[in-house]
Amino acid sequence: MPMFENRVALEIARGIKVFLYVQAGVTRDGAAELAPKPGSSRESGAPTRLKRAGQRIASKGRVLRAQARRHPGREEVADGVRAENVVWIFGAARTGSTWLSRMMGEMKGQTVWREPLVGALFGNLYYDRAKHLIGKGGKHYILGDRYRDSWLDSIRTFVLKEASGRFPEAAGPDRYLVIKEPNGSSGAPLLIEALPESSMILLVRDPRDAVASSMDAKREGSWHYENRKKWTGKSPVDKNPDAYVRKQAETYIQRINIAKQAYDAHEGPKVLVRYEELRADAFGAMRRIYSELGIPADEGELAKAVEKHSWENIPEKEKGEGKVFRKATPGGWREDLTPRQAEVVERITAPLLDELYPNDALYS
């Protein structure tokens, strides 16, 4: 009789384990790996051991589900934006990202998410704030290294869920969401790691022109000056132009460097584009972007998008000094920066100039 009862208990135990496997989402291979060997002490049916086995199975299931969520092609949000159809534009401010994203937004099946700053949300905390934390590898810090897989999975879910809620029209296998995120480039490595199937455009510009453009936006009466005045209620007067140039150059190279880290590490579709290429041959540059990212693009449709947003077709009242669309002239920094200011930018951004603008660098 006791032998019969033991066999019944074992069968019940096996049934419970199978149920736990199903609930935990463990695959057949995972179940075989976790299952006790016949005749072993683990098959005793003792309640405490069964409970521990169930906990291990549930833990294994959570890991497998987390891995599956990062697996290319999986849809985390039913009928939502797909990770493999997300296209990031990283870089820095005043590099032409608005122009590029507007052209891409004209293409059929492509939607643009402008400046969500999700990269800044996580990147500033992880790369800047965390430098001053003690014990950042522990369990209390939200982006602690020990729990990296967990919070990367949370970042992935957060981005895709928010994207799907805001842009339902970007959902589906033939739809793309272009995320213009130059000012969120501080979080580019985290976002790319969390969504490894996504595509990345690294957009760069001669840092001297980028800084000159930022200086123009800072001047009294400019679009940025007036916006800051409206937001803060104060006049953002620039009392030290040289100090501003230095700060902007440091910010530019910092954002480009961290975006370049993400670009170099990314194993998915990616393309590096210089603003100067877009200005010289926008259609050719756009065609190369779509080709290298593997995104289908009708050339006739692409030509219309480029033509619509060409410099010549921007209304005169929307371009010029103090406007969002200012000059669009590569090398214009020679007229905008003093020799001393240019030297400061060149010194700070020397590695970038050496790599991408070797013929234009004036420093020795």
Topology:
Elements (H helix, E strand, L loop, with lengths): L1 H23 L3 H7 L12 H23 L16 E5 L6 H9 L4 E5 L3 H11 L19 H19 L9 E5 L7 H7 L4 E6 L2 H12 L4 H10 L8 H25 L4 E5 H6 L1 H12 L5 H10 L24 H4 L2 H10 L1 H7 L8
Parallel strand pairs: 1-3, 1-4, 2-3, 4-5
Helix pairs in contact: 1-3, 4-13, 6-7, 7-10, 8-10, 10-15, 12-13
In short:
The protein contains 16 helices and 5 strands. By secondary structure, it is an alpha/beta fold.
Q: Count the helices. How many? A: 16
Strands of the largest sheet, in order across it?
Answer: 2-3-1-4-5
Write the CATH fold name of the largest domain: Rossmann fold
- CATH homologous superfamily descriptor of the largest domain: P-loop containing nucleotide triphosphate hydrolases
Query: Runs with pLDDT <50, length 5+?
Result: 1-5, 18-47, 49-53, 55-75
Q: List the helices and strands in order.
A: HHHEHEHHEHEHHHEHHHHHH
- Helicity level: 40-55%
Largest sheet: 5 strands, parallel
Tell me the name of the CATH class of the largest domain. Alpha Beta
Alpha carbon gyration radius: 27 Å
Report the portion of residues in β strands: 5-15%
End-to-end Cα distance, whole Å, is: 94 Å
CATH architecture of the largest domain: 3-Layer(aba) Sandwich
Q: What would the principal axes of the Cα set say about the shape?
A: globular
Task: Indicate the structural class.
Answer: alpha/beta
Number of strands: 5
